[in-house]
Amino acid sequence: QVQVVESGGGLVQTGGSLRLSCATSGLTFSRLSMGWFRQAPGKEREFVASISRNGENIDYTDSVKGRFTISRDNAKNTVYLQMNSLKPEDTAVYYCAADVAAFVNRSPGLWGYWGQGTQVTVSS
Q1: Which residues, 6 or more positions from 49, have their beta carbon under 8 angstroms from its beta carbon?
Q2: pLDDT digits (tens, 9 = 90+) for 2-27
Q3: β-strand 10-13 against 118-123: which pairing, if any?
Q4: How confident is the model at residue 124 (pLDDT cuts 50, 70, 90)?
Q5: For position 97, what pLDDT does the model report?
Q6: 122: exposed, middle or buried (C-beta count within 10 Å: 0-12, 13-18, 19+)?
Q7: 63: left (phi > 0), else alpha (psi -120 to 50), else beta?
Q8: Are 96 and 27 in contact (CB under 8 A)?
Q9: pLDDT digits (tens, 9 = 90+) for 46-94
Q10: What are the backbone dihedrals phi and psi of residue 59, each rounded to the nearest 5 degrees, phi first?
């Protein structure tokens, strides 16, 4: 079956860095668009970043632009989210998403496959 598994979350102080990883199986990774979303308590799931199959199209929500970097390594079936200069408002469960669609979008409802989430907590 299809699996999407993210990792790398944890507790970090304001200004610190974390790198999230997301690996897939049961799918041809190079044919997938990949994205990161996050959800804070009491809020709905929010788009963070996405990257197209060939890496040509990259999108970030404004609040993370300049601080976060999404990348992919098709040889490792893995997408990454490098998070620098973290702020308390970045605290959330971060979800990895994948879809076979060629066109990347910001709507969670249009992404077909999801990981179980990894907690990111930024203190201070």
Answers
A1: 35, 36, 58, 59, 60, 61, 64, 68, 70, 81
A2: 899 999 999 999 999 999 999 999 88
A3: parallel
A4: confident
A5: 97
A6: buried
A7: alpha
A8: no
A9: 999 999 998 999 999 999 999 999 999 999 999 999 999 999 999 999 9
A10: -135, 140
Give the pLDDT confidence score for residue 1 in this predicted structure. 80
Give Rg (Cα) of the chain.
13
* Residue 95 amino acid letter: Y
Burial zone of 83 (CB within 10 Å; 0-12 exposed, 13-18 middle, 19+ buried): buried
**Residue 112 near residue 49, CB atoms below 8 Å:** no
Instruction: Record the tokens describing residue 86, joined without a space.
Output: 């973290």
Cα-Cα end-to-end distance for the chain:
41
Contact predicate 114/6, CB 8 Å: no
Query: How many C-beta neighbours within 10 Å does residue 65 have?
Result: 10
**DSSP designation for 40:** -
The 8-class DSSP code of residue 109 comes to G
